[in-house]
């Protein structure tokens, strides 16, 4: 079985560079479907399994895509299908974000209910409510959603019952080409929403207020391709900050934007970690003895749920008792059972986990139950006595570029063992190579000859 092996006890030092943000690049690539003319050139695109999945989704809909040197070029003058392939949509939550662009661009879409990390029921009612308010007719059945609109979508006033990141993004993209103005109230405020709005505006869109709870989108008739640099991944940055702190290390997280990490930084400071912010990154210096703190996850600018499990790893080695409360997803404590295999003292009580810190962690065989759980287990393993084997790597590969190589460069004793020796050579070469060395890849649809142009019904 493919696994990561960590031998704990090394203090991390040095510099680690943060890649482009997964949760920003995925909606941005979906939004590139909105451009009827010109190529989009997206820079700082991380080499992640989720990025491969979204580019395959785009290719299946008719987009032409190349990827080289962390730059993805997307051209979608013709949309050839209104049906997003089930086997891709079920892999990843963000693939559902093609629904808004397809509805806006061609007025028709058939898509399955999305997959993604199994951290809760993750309904999509707020996305659908938004599209319906804009005039889409939606039918659901047998795990599929079909939506269509006989005319261009209409601008609407939409209030989200929950400040959903995905619903805000999907509606924002649909509204960009709608007839009239859309307002999204109780919109999500995450930095990834702002990045998407900046990209849509670079394409000729008119989005105002992104980053606040009220976003106003004036629809335009057409959008064009644009060049855009993806923001650095705040969750990846936060993960390396925790990795540094848990080993009592001294690490410069290059590219991390402190403004995007305010709640994480402030919790680390409360625990006694020294944080030095600068224009091009964040330096993390940790004492060997840290204090317990309570943490409650909330939508941005609250403490991010995507950092909850990594923070729990750090609390395991801090003096005192902490209460970690998860309010965003109802099933995001699956890492607790895995931590317990490493001798952690944690008790779950409803939406809270009570962590008794300071108990020595020991290496164990553990499994990544979701993406961030996997990262958190690696963090804990860096501190644990002895060797830890982490399996379930398909989760980690969705969201971390070369995590073993990056941690090893900081002095961690960590390596990846592939299932079969032959695949090891190939996979490691791709994962560890700087992306600039990777050959450009062109993704094309299988049936290039049978191009079916899907015209909007109102064209
Ligand atoms: C690809 C991506 O960007 N993923 C992120 C995105 O996921 P995602 O966009 O799926 O998360 P949401 O913000 O939509 O979910 C937040 C909460 O709202 C609920 N909800 C959501 C939509 C809806 O229609 N109805 C509803 O009830 C969800 O079940 C959840 O309890 O934001 C999450 C919250 O910061 C992060 O953990 C994910 O990493
Ligand atoms: C939950 C996450 O991703 P997704 O929404 O794609 O499942 C995550 O990035 O931590």
From TrEMBL:
Keyword line: Cell cycle, Cell division, Cell shape, Cell wall biogenesis/degradation, Cytoplasm, Peptidoglycan synthesis, Pyruvate, Transferase
Domain of life: Bacteria
Pfam families, sorted: EPSP_synthase (PF00275)
Pathway(s) per entry: Cell wall biogenesis; peptidoglycan biosynthesis
Residue intervals of the Enolpyruvate transferase domain: 6-407
Sequence positions that bind phosphoenolpyruvate: 22-23
This enzyme's EC code(s): 2.5.1.7
Active site: 117 (proton donor)
Binding residue positions for UDP-N-acetyl-alpha-D-glucosamine: 93, 122-126, 306, 328
GO function term, MF aspect, one: UDP-N-acetylglucosamine 1-carboxyvinyltransferase activity
Residues found modified as 2-(S-cysteinyl)pyruvic acid O-phosphothioketal: 117
Enzyme class (EC, first level): transferase
Principal cellular location given in the protein's record: cytoplasm
Annotated compartments: Cytoplasm
Any Gene Ontology CC annotation: cytoplasm
GO biological processes: cell division; cell wall organization; peptidoglycan biosynthetic process; regulation of cell shape; UDP-N-acetylgalactosamine biosynthetic process
Catalysed reactions, as listed in the record: phosphoenolpyruvate + UDP-N-acetyl-alpha-D-glucosamine = UDP-N-acetyl-3-O-(1-carboxyvinyl)-alpha-D-glucosamine + phosphate
InterPro entries in alphabetical order: Enolpyruvate_Tfrase_dom, Enolpyruvate_Tfrase_sf, MurA_subfamily, RNA3'P_cycl/enolpyr_Trfase_a/b, UDP_GlcNAc_COvinyl_MurA
Family that this chain belongs to: Belongs to the EPSP synthase family. MurA subfamily.
Role summary: Cell wall formation. Adds enolpyruvyl to UDP-N-acetylglucosamine.
Protein name per Swiss-Prot or TrEMBL: UDP-N-acetylglucosamine 1-carboxyvinyltransferase
């Amino acid at each position: 079985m493919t696994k990561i092996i960590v031998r704990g006890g090394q203090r991390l030092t040095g510099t680690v560079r943060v890649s482009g943000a997964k949760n920003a690049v995925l909606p941005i690539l979906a939004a590139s479907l909105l451009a009827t003319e010109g190529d989009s050139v997206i820079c700082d695109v991380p080499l992640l399994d989720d990025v491969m999945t979204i580019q395959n989704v785009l290719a299946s809909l008719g987009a032409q895509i190349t990827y080289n040197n962390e730059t993805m070029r997307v051209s979608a003058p013709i949309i050839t299908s209104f049906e997003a392939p089930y086997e891709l949509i079920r892999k990843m939550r963000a693939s559902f974000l093609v629904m808004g662009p397809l509805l806006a661009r061609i007025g028709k879409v058939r898509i399955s209910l999305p997959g993604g990390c199994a951290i809760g029921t993750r309904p999509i009612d707020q996305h659908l409510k938004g599209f319906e308010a804009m005039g889409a007719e939606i039918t659901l059945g047998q795990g599929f959603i079909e939506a269509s609109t006989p005319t261009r979508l209409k601008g609407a006033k939409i209030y989200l019952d929950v400040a959903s990141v995905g619903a805000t993004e999907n509606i924002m993209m649909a509204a960009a080409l709608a007839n009239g103005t859309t307002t999204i109230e109780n919109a999500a405020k995450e930095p990834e929403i702002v990045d998407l709005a900046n990209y849509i505006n670079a394409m000729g869109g008119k989005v105002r207020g992104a980053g606040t709870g009220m976003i106003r989108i004036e629809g335009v008739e057409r959008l064009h391709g644009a060049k855009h640099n993806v923001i650095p991944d705040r969750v990846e940055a936060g993960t390396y900050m925790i990795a540094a702190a848990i080993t009592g290390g001294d690490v410069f997280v290059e590219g991390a934007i402190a403004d995007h990490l305010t709640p994480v930084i402030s919790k680390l400071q409360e625990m006694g970690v020294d944080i030095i912010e600068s224009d091009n990154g964040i330096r993390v210096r940790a004492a060997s003895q840290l204090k317990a703190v309570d943490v409650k996850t909330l939508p941005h600018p609250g403490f991010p749920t995507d950092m909850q499990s990594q923070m729990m790893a750090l609390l395991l080695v801090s003096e005192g008792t902490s209460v970690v409360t998860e309010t965003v997803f109802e099933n995001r404590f699956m890492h607790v059972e895995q931590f317990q295999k490493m001798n952690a003292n944690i008790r779950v009580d409803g939406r809270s986990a009570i962590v008794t810190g300071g108990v020595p962690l020991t290496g164990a065989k553990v499994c990544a139950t979701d993406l961030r759980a996997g990262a958190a287990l690696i963090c804990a393993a860096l501190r644990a006595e002895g060797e830890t084997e982490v399996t379930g790597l398909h989760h980690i590969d969705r969201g971390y570029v070369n995590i073993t190589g990056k941690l090893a460069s900081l002095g961690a004793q960590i390596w990846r063992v592939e299932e079969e020796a032959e695949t090891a050579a190939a996979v490691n070469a791709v994962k560890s190579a700087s992306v600039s060395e990777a050959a450009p890849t062109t993704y094309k649809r299988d049936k290039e000859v049978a191009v079916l142009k899907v015209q909007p019904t109102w064209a």
